Description:
Layout: E1 11-15, E2 20-24, E3 42-45, H1 56-67, H2 91-104, H3 108-113, H4 121-128
Antiparallel strand pairs: 1-2, 1-3
Amino acid sequence: xxxxAETSYKLHYACVxxxxxxxxxxxxxxxxxxxxxxxxxxxxxxxxxxxxxxxVRAWSVVAAVLRLGLRYEGxxxxxxxxxxxxxxxxxxxxxxxxxxxxxxxVPLSEALARRDPWPAPEESARVxxxxxxxxx
Length: 136
């Protein structure tokens, strides 16, 4: 049974400039805009949990994830046999993924989507010549 197939759930939309989020039905005919600043809202997915408005650091991580086109989804659109996606929650996690992305040549969107930011041993051996990440 598909999780999202029975009901049309609202999606979370976020304005990272104003640090606010809204739940709205997706409408492909028009773009949702922020009521505060009139900028287009970024689609954050079904399972986005907005940080507190005063938490500027957490919103900077959200902005980095959303600007790469990634969404916060716990299940696929149909909900069938897919694990929840992982997204960085802190600036330290974001910084780690940025460094590893540049070091190992992994696309940033892929590095942000991984649960474990370290590349697989066969990837790191291909990029570095031999061995894996330090300490592993």
